[in-house]
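> example.struct
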């Protein structure tokens, strides 16, 4: 939930300047105690998806912590292993069934040694696919909410621009070379890969009339985005 400090700041502004002000006057929130899970889901659907299982008391607690910048409480809230290796590990639940109680989803099946709960491992059909990341990396505004907002839309760009122009890599191919670190611009190796810059120059003299030579240059710069989507996003 904290992510970069900018995330916490934006989230507390969403509560103070929108929900608790006249900006979202039809949201039914007059004071912080009125905040319900449904008011937070338009952000937390991706930033802390497990919130959907929480009660409205928890919504008030999260809202208060965000407004007060209570890092102690908020640092306990994160996209943890279970979000990806359980809740989000099956997308087509009519085909594959919903995630099962006792099961962790990975790339292979077997026993999950040394634990009393989640004692089975099963293969997730989507863990290595881009659609898995697409669940949170966004297609566009969240039209399924009464008051849509949009944030990350990079999966839309991947599907509609990168793939149609012949792109073949998955999100995991590019972002999980260093495992779960899932590096982007904050990793200098990744930042270097982002854009290819080709520069060609031609120097010449412009000679409009006798005894007048003006030195000039033609500079052609081609910048190619190597990411599997437009940058920046979010
Ligand atoms: C449960 C939702 C969720 C899933 C699934 C998910 N992400 Fe993210 N991801 C996020 C959120 C939220 C952030 C932003 C965190 C912040 O800054 O507060 C993020 C941030 C990132 C970043 C930026 C890190 C940085 O340096 O700032 C990368 C890269 C990334 N995710 C890649 C992936 C890839 C690849 C996958 C699939 C293997 C994936 N994500 C799956 C929610 C998700
Ligand atoms: C944002 C989503 C995300 C989170 C959070 C996450 N993982 Fe993963 N994990 C993945 C993906 C995607 C893969 C598969 C990568 C691949 O094979 O290309 C993976 C692979 C793994 C594997 C290898 C599985 C196998 O069968 O090969 C292990 C083990 C693992 N994760 C453990 C963890 C643990 C422990 C945590 C919590 C500390 C965690 N993961 C949190 C997305 C996530
Ligand atoms: C062909 C390789 C490639 C593919 C495929 C790819 N990315 Fe990236 N992505 C990059 C590179 C390189 C950057 C670094 C850009 C930078 O330095 O700002 C990046 C940046 C990002 C960022 C940071 C966004 C920002 O505002 O700078 C996120 C988040 C991200 N990718 C997630 C994803 C997800 C999710 C997918 C799959 C839907 C994906 N990427 C597919 C190469 C790729
Ligand atoms: C569709 C899923 C989704 C929704 C809904 C969503 N976010 Fe995000 N958000 C992300 C992901 C993924 C990232 C990081 C990757 C990126 O920037 O592309 C991100 C990045 C951010 C960042 C930038 C962090 C940084 O330092 O660059 C802020 C701030 C943020 N979100 C706040 C919000 C707020 C506030 C809401 C609700 C009004 C919200 N988000 C709704 C998925 C989402």
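> example.seq
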């Amino acid at each position: 939930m904290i992510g970069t400090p900018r995330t916490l700041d934006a989230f507390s502004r969403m509560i103070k300047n929108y929900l608790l002000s006249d900006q979202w006057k039809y949201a039914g929130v007059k004071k912080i105690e009125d905040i319900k899970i449904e008011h937070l889901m338009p952000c937390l659907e991706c930033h802390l998806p497990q919130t959907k299982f929480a009660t409205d008391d928890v919504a008030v607690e999260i809202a208060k912590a965000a407004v007060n910048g209570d890092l102690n409480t908020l640092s306990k809230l994160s996209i943890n292993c279970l979000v990806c290796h359980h809740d989000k590990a099956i997308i087509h639940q009519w085909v594959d069934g919903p995630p099962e109680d006792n099961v962790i989803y990975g790339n292979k099946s077997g026993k999950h040694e040394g634990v009393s709960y989640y004692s089975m491992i099963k293969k997730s059909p989507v863990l290595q696919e881009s659609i898995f990341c697409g669940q949170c990396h966004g297609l566009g505004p969240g039209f399924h909410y009464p008051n849509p907002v949009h944030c990350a839309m990079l999966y839309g760009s991947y599907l509609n621009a990168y793939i149609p122009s012949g792109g073949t890599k998955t999100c995991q191919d590019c972002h999980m070379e260093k495992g779960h670190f899932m590096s982007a611009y904050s990793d200098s190796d990744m930042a270097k890969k982002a854009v290819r810059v080709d520069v060609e120059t031609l120097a010449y003299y412009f000679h409009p009339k006798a005894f007048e030579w003006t030195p000039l240059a033609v500079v052609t710069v081609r910048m190619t985005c190597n990411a599997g989507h437009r940058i920046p996003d979010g």
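> remarks
The beta strands are 103-106, 110-111, 120-123, 195-209, 212-225.
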